[in-house]
Structures are given as C-alpha cells and as structure tokens.
Specification:
By secondary structure, the chain is of the alpha+beta class. The chain is built from six helices and ten strands. Helix 2 packs antiparallel against helix 3. It is globular.
Length: about 240
C-alpha cells in the first residue's frame, strides 16, 4: 500500500484488531526478534495476538510510506522509549505513534517528529472523580466535573486522551506530571493549540479530538501547525 505524507497533514489510521486475529501469523512473520520476544511475554493468547496484529499493521503502513518490505522496517528508541525509524539513505522518513484499547488500534503518521495519538474505550470507572481531582488542572476539572453524570464520563476521556497524546508527542509519556499539561481550555473537536514549557524549551502542539470509533475517545497531536487530517480504516 504505497502512501505519501504531505506537509502539515496528519495521517490517522484505525484498525479493529480483534477482527484480524485469525490472520495473526501473517503479521507475525514481519516482526523483529525483539517484537517476537515481547509478544511471547504476554500471558493471554488474545493479548499476544493483539500485540502481533498491531505491530504488524504498523510495519505494513510504515513500509508503504517508506517504500520497503514490512520486515525491513527498523526501529530505534529515544531516551524515554519513544520509537522512531532508523535512518535510510535517500528516504524521508515518517514519524509515527501507536495506541490501542480493547481490540481497537490507532496509528498516526506525520512529517513532524512530535506526533502522538491515544485511543481509549469509554467506560465507567469508580475512580474517575478522584483521578480528575488529583491529576487534572483547574480548567480540566471544570470541564469534566461541571457536566452531567453521563457527560462527565465522555469529557473525562476527552481530557485523558488529549493529555496522553500531547505527552506522547513530547516523547516522555506519563513520565511528566499530568497536571502540568493543560488541555481543558477548549471544547469541540479542534484543532487548537496546547503549549508545553520545560527544560528543552517551549513547544506548541496542534490538537484534534477524533470521533471515529463508536464507544471510544481518541485524540491526535502534532508539534507545530497541522491544517489537514486524513482518517482511514485498515482492512485486509
């Protein structure tokens, strides 16, 4: 599947990985020895199969952007574990992010090195209010806790996925305190700007909420401007 990334565009793919579990051996053939070892560490067959399918799809999509076979895709990791593609002579490499939840996966690609995506199944959790009180900023608490009971759950996941996606794009994940990232000032699906300040400097991120998969919340974030987002679904 040859693909071409455009400037200032995010390519976002979704996949229902549980539907693809019967094909997991096909995807397994593309994994690196390290990925195969990681897959083998899962206790349950379904979790192992989901990992294989997710990482097989990631390799297949990256191969389409780069112009190589899926098994030829090679990764390195940043200082906090964020993966990136190994350098290839004469090729402009895409940057990427992967997230999965309850049998669904999201894959984001851009020309910007700061790319992050998060997807979460929307479900009631008893600790929702206490999590918001401990980890959310004042504006985020107002956005979540000021709504009706049903609205609180959806807005909680709105805020959570935005935060996760920003921190992934920044390359540190949950190593940073979540209440130091404020994504509660906006309503609607975006895009809007979130600013992060730390020892490495000031970075502006463009944030989009994604309402694409029923029963799930998702957000995608990229460093710098993004005027366009392309959303597609992976199918065999």
């Amino acid at each position: 599947m040859p693909q071409q990334l455009k400037e200032n565009r995010i390519d976002l793919w979704f996949a229902f990985t549980d539907h693809l579990l019967p094909e997991k051996e096909r995807f397994a053939a593309w994994l690196s020895p390290q990925e195969t070892e990681r897959a083998g560490s899962f206790r349950f067959d379904r979790d192992r199969g989901r990992y294989i399918v997710e990482h097989g799809i990631l390799r297949l999509l990256l191969a389409g952007y780069v112009g190589v076979e899926p098994q030829a895709v090679a990764f390195h990791s940043g200082p906090h574990g964020k993966p990136y593609l190994s350098w290839m002579i004469g090729r402009r490499l895409p940057h990427f992010s992967l997230s999965s939840s309850d049998g669904h996966a999201a894959f984001a690609f851009s020309r910007s090195s700061g790319i992050g995506v998060d997807i979460e199944k929307i479900r009631d959790i008893e600790e929702m209010e206490s999590i918001a009180l401990r980890h959310f900023t004042p504006s985020e608490k107002a956005l979540v806790l000021g709504d009706t009971e049903e609205g609180r759950v959806r807005r909680f996941y709105r805020v959570w996925t935005r935060k996760e996606a920003v921190l992934k794009a920044h390359g540190i994940g949950l190593l940073r305190e979540m209440d130091r990232v404020d994504v509660g000032g906006a309503v609607g699906t975006g895009p809007w700007t979130v600013v992060l300040d730390d020892e490495s400097g000031r970075v502006e991120y463009t944030v989009f909420d994604i309402d694409e998969v029923d029963g799930f919340a998702a957000a995608v974030v990229v460093a710098g401007p993004a005027s366009e987002i392309s959303v597609r679904h992976y199918e065999l």
